[in-house]
Write a structure and sequence with these properties.
By secondary structure, this protein is α/β, with parallel strands linked by helices. The chain contains 14 helices and twelve strands. It has two domains: about 230 residues, Aspartate Aminotransferase, domain 2 (3-Layer(aba) Sandwich); about 140 residues, Aspartate Aminotransferase, domain 1 (Alpha-Beta Complex). Helix 2 runs parallel beside helix 9 and helix 3 crosses helix 4. About 45% of the residues are buried. The chain binds pyridoxal-5'-phosphate. Keywords: Lyase, Pyridoxal phosphate.
Length: about 375
């Protein structure tokens, strides 16, 4: 089955009991058991629920994995994956990961005895040099947020395999429509499904997909033991959102490409971070591992222009955190999503105070371009 067909028919796309063409919402906590001490398929909804199973099997099929798992948020999914490890274990982490992941690592997981080294995962030498005797995994995002840095998943996975480490990839920005990390050698994929997979700014959810039965039983055990599961209503909403992923991503990508061209031609925009930038050093890796450039881009205004005036004059593009939805969103990482990172570290990582991040929606491109143009004019005044 091709990817776009899997979006519609992957996982469990029909109800066996009634033939309903959409999966029902099984709003139940428990299930009648036929015999004492039997082995029923479902016994309690933390452990398993058919609506949740439908979305879990769907993401498994889309990422070409062994099993999928749905959680109450991307953060809950990431936390559960990190509980594969024990006090004393060491994990290598990309230096440009999602702020919430950074917070989870630094203020929660280190307290529980895990240790971390952050590296630029684009640099294989740096990755290799960070490996210690107690290293268990490499955790990375690509493209990163907000600078769209691209890591070669194949290369990192190779180093991981040689050293008996797991490779864990946060695939939120690309989605399996554009990039399938398990096919490139990674062992575990995590998602904030609150973004492109849900796709409509109406849901918080997380997903995990693994590439082998042993990991599937471990994550299944932890999901049940920790209990941060996705409820049946949200599981239903998520599988509904995923069905249109291909058409939405096509529209996001077309609009983002047009906006990139527009910004590139405007002298008031000094820097643009976009996976489709052919002049970027990361572009060869983009061509090799991604099927498109996605719908995210960041840019900087010329010094002296007012970021505040630009943002506040936008009429259509909404000032908000989050990304990956049908409506275009804009934010200033230094003040918003990355505000909790100490300024010195933030600036060192390339996130300036003038940086603006755009999650390009699927509105008509000319309306978005007109909005950006009047925003730039307002910033110039
Ligand atoms: C939003 C996000 C997360 C966290 O997901 P939540 O659903 O908000 O908990 C993790 N990783 C990335 C890349 C994200 O954008």
């Amino acid at each position: 089955m091709k990817f776009n067909t899997k979006l519609i028919h992957g996982g469990i796309s029909q109800d066996k009991a009634t033939g309903a063409v959409t999966v029902p919402i099984y709003q139940t906590s428990t299930y009648a058991q036929k015999e004492l001490a039997g082995t029923p398929e479902y016994e309690y909804s933390r452990t398993g629920n058919p609506t949740r199973k439908a979305v879990e099997d769907l993401i498994r099929d889309l990422e070409n994995g062994t099993a999928g798992f749905a959680f109450a948020s991307g953060s809950a999914a990431i936390h559960t994956v990190f509980t594969l490890f024990s006090a004393g274990d060491h994990i290598i982490v990309g230096n440009d990961v999602y702020g919430g992941t950074f917070r989870l690592i630094n203020t929660v997981l280190t307290r529980l005895g895990l240790t971390f080294t952050t590296v630029d995962t684009r640099n294989i030498t740096e990755v290799k040099e960070a490996i210690k005797e107690n290293t268990k995994a490499i955790y990375l995002e690509t493209p990163t947020n907000p600078l769209m840095r691209i890591t070669d998943i194949k290369k990192v996975s190779q180093v991981a395999k040689e050293n008996d480490l797991l490779t864990i990839v946060d695939n939120t920005f690309a989605t399996p429509y554009i990039q399938r990390p398990l096919d490139l050698g990674a062992d575990i994929v995590v998602h904030s499904a609150s973004k492109y997979l849900g796709g409509h700014s109406d849901l918080i959810a997380g997903l995990v997909v693994v590439n082998k039965p042993e990991l599937a039983s471990q994550i299944g055990y932890l999901q049940n033991a920790i209990g941060g599961i996705l409820g049946p209503q949200d599981s239903w909403l998520l599988q509904r959102g995923i069905k249109t992923l291909a058409v939405r991503m096509d529209a996001h990508q077309c609009n983002a490409a047009e906006i990139y061209q527009f910004l590139k031609e405007d002298q008031r925009v000094t820097k643009i971070y976009y996976p489709g930038d052919e002049t970027s050093a990361d572009f060869t890796v983009v061509k090799n591992q991604m099927d498109g450039f996605g719908g995210m881009l960041s840019f900087e205004l010329e010094k002296g222009l007012s970021v505040k005036h630009f943002i506040e004059s936008l009429q259509l593009i909404t000032l908000a955190e989050s990304l990956g939805s049908v409506e275009s969103l804009v934010e200033v990482p230094a003040i918003m999503t990355h505000g909790s990172i100490p300024e010195a570290i933030r600036l060192k990582n390339g996130i300036s105070n003038e940086l603006i991040r755009l999650s390009v929606g699927i509105e008509q491109a000319e309306d978005l371009l007109a909005d950006l143009k009047q925003g730039l004019d307002a910033a110039t005044k």
